[in-house]
Amino acid sequence: MDRIRTPASQRKRQKGMHSPKFSCSYEIKFNNFVIFIMQRKMGMTRRTFLMELARSKGFRVESELSDSVTHIVAENNSYLEVLDWLRGQAVGDSSRFELLDISWLTACMEAGRPVDSEMKYRLVEQADRYPTLNTPESEVPLFTASKVSQYSCQRKTTLNNCNKKFTDAFEIMAENYEFKENEVFCLEFLRAASVLKCLPFPVTRMKDIQGLPCMGDQVRDVIEEIIEDGESSRAKDVLNDERYKSFKQFTSVFGVGVKTSEKWFRMGLRTLEEVKADKTLKLSKMQRAGFLYYEDLVSFVSKAEADAVSLIVKNTVCTFLPDALVTITGGFRRGKKIGHDIDFLITNPGPREDDELLHKVVDLWKKQQFGRDLRRYATHERKMMLDNHALYDKRKRIFLKAGSEEEIFAHLGLDYLEPWERNA
User: Fold this and answer.
1) Coil, helix or strand for 395?
2) Number of independent structural domains in the chain
């Protein structure tokens, strides 16, 4: 996806502070709040939408950074990243601004008024207090394992995993127990992996995990072996296990779970190629779709692709609910650069609701798939031009009269398809 570049003249103007410039088409209800929404990591379309939404709720929002701004809102930017951006705008003193996460603005939109900019919304500097591999032991600050909660919702866990060699082994063990439908041991390894991911330092000795929650005997055995030998023989055995390898393949197909994998394995099937070659198998509708779109479903989605899809979803949803907020959730919201799918949360701050929203969105997309191919057919096969307004015959150089869809199909020499027959 091409990066949207700011014109040189605009970049030059942004170097200094500017006079206020905001929309006057809405009544300003909250004069003490002057908001500026950073475009960095957000994109122009989403920023424009949020600006207009906030203005429609009575907030004063400026298009450019000015002396009157009181609150700066950022999305997926750290405190230091915002400071760096402000320095690039020739701002010397950032203390006069409230630096806030996008969640504050979302909360304001839901409440229909300004909410307190309490600590959970503020962007603050986080000191690096933890050791690295090169930090002398005498300089390592005291780490209190007893303060690490057994609940992940009470722990800060970033994508900076200092203990990947342990957590990778744990996740292999957990998946193997999941295939065996042993939930107890599966959760034991998953919870242990979650705890080690939150540690701000690499585990190099057994003493490092003393007092940590979720460190059962099986987990400790794997950790000790990795510390001593550099790898886990148990995890290595699992990766070479025929049953595990078959289940890994089977469950990668959309619509196939552990029960079906067990059934296929008992039938003597070991690979997806063998499953597809077995004509006696009766696949469900989901499983047939899983095999049909297998390559697409198992391929990775990049952050750029997720942003592009997000824009399509937002534009379509806003066709039906103009005030709706569409937020990427899941791995991309947590900062991952790639994923297997894109999760969205659609909310509507206003009183209006639409229980049929998702059906309307999907139906609109189906029509656009179909409509795009209809125009492509007209251009390439009939030398005509079809758009939302007219049908034009380029060879005869005339507009063709069409008062209905049936007449358009007839002009194109196509059999008429009813709307319910257009689920392309």
Assistant:
1) coil
2) 5
Task: Note whether residue 179 is domain-resident.
Answer: yes
Judge whether 71 and 98 are in contact, CB under 8 Å.
yes
Q: In what order do the strands lie in the sheet with 30-37?
A: 59-62, 30-37, 71-74, 98-101
Q: How far is CA 206 from CA 169, 202, 221, 227, 301, in A?
A: 16, 11, 10, 8, 38
Question: 22 and 102: one domain?
Answer: yes
Residue 136 lies in a domain: no
Distance CA 392, CA 284 (A): 45
Domain shared by 217 and 274, yes or no:
no
Strands 59-62 and 98-101: unpaired
Domain presence at residue 208: yes
Question: Does residue 133 sit within a domain?
Answer: no
Mean pLDDT comparison of 62-66, 90-94, 267-271, highest-scoring range: 267-271
Whether the Cβ atoms of residue 86 and residue 96 lie closer than 8 Å to each other:
no
**Same domain for 363 and 349:** no
Per-residue confidence (pLDDT) for residue 234, from 0 to 100? 95
pTM above 0.85?
Answer: no
Q: Which of 145, 193, 190 is nearest to 166 (CA)?
A: 193
User: With contact defined as beta carbons under 8 Å apart, do 102 and 71 qualify?
Assistant: no
Give the residue among 353, 329, 352 at the shortest CA–CA distance from 341: 329
Domain that holds residue 270: 246-289
How far apart CA 358 and CA 366 sit, in angstroms, is: 12
